[in-house]
Structure formats: structure tokens, C-alpha cells
Amino acid sequence: MSSSRAQPWSILGRLTSPKTAMFIVGVFSGQTKPANVSEYFQDLINEMSDLQPHGYYHVGSGNRCKIHFDRLIADAPARAFIRQVKQHSGYFSCEKCCVRGIYTFGRVTLPNIGCARRFDDSFRSRLQP
User: Fold this and answer.
1) Strand partners, 103
2) What PANTHER family does the entry give (predicted)?
3) Contacts of residue 126, Cβ cutoff 8 Å, sequence gap at least 6
4) What percent of the chain shows pLDDT beyond 70?
5) In whole angstroms, what separates CA 114 from the centre of its chain?
6) Confidence band (pLDDT; 50, 70, 90) for 129?
7) Quick check: helix, strand or coil at residue 38?
8) What phi and psi, each to the nearest 5 degrees, are found at residue 73?
9) Nearest to 51 by CA among 40, 43, 60
10) Count of H-run helices and E-run strands, the chain
């Protein structure tokens, strides 16, 4: 059996009414992570553009159900890719503050608590201390 270098990147969803467990909405698979965020989300955006105003027909109940996009569910590597920021192991990788990590024992750690908070304007301007 040969090993595969395929990297699956899933898009997850969850219904809030009725509340359900997370489920796979779509999957990107390739030899590397997706080339760009727009391409990764394009099919989802197209489908949501149609589903939000029209809803979907639930076969089991015979009802037309509404769809509302509420939030994005992603693990740390996927969030970094989506936001186009440093990976979760980078020196300035904290999503909440501006602490600079320290390389120690073969990994980057974020040792300080109570550092300057990261705000939307500094994030959009891509500022670092």
C-alpha cells in the first residue's frame, strides 16, 4: 500500500435550530493546503447565496427550512489560513494579544500573560509591536 500526501481540509457546519452536532459541509483535498482562501470558500459562498434567501426543502418533515450563517468553525491551522496570519506555532501567533513567542525546547511558547491586546484596527493594518 502506498502512502498518500493528500491533505483534506474540511468545511464544517452545525444547525442551531434544531441544534445538531457538527457535520461536513464540504471538503477540499489536494497535495498541499488550498492555494487561496477565496478559492477554498467559493463553492460554499455560491451555495449560501442561494440557500439564505430561499432555504431548503426538508424531505422528512415536508417543510421549507431557513438557513442562517452564524459563525465559522475551524481548528487553529485552518483559522490562521482563513485569516491569512501566522500559523499557531509562529512567534506572533496569539489571536488575542501581541505577545512575542520564545523558541525553547524545540517549540515556540507564549510565556507572558496580560500582554497588550490585539484589536481589529491593528489586525487589519497587520501591525506588530
Assistant:
1) 108
2) PROTEIN, PUTATIVE-RELATED
3) none
4) 95
5) 26
6) low
7) helix
8) -110, 120
9) 43
10) 3, 6
Q: Could you read off the pLDDT of 59-83 as tens digits, one per residue?
A: 888 888 888 777 778 888 888 888 8
Name the one residue in this structure whose C-alpha cell is 487589519.
124
Q: b/e per residue, 31-61, with b = 16+ CB within 10 A?
A: eeebeeeeebbeeeeeebeeeeeeeeeeeee
Buried b (16+ CB within 10 A) or exposed e, 71-103: eeebeeebebbeeeebeeeeebbbeeebbbbee
The cell for 125 is 493594518
Whether 27 and 8 have beta carbons less than 8 Å apart is answered as yes
Angstrom distance (rounded) from CA 18 to CA 46: 24
Q: Which residues contact 46 (CB under 8 A, 6 or more apart)?
A: none
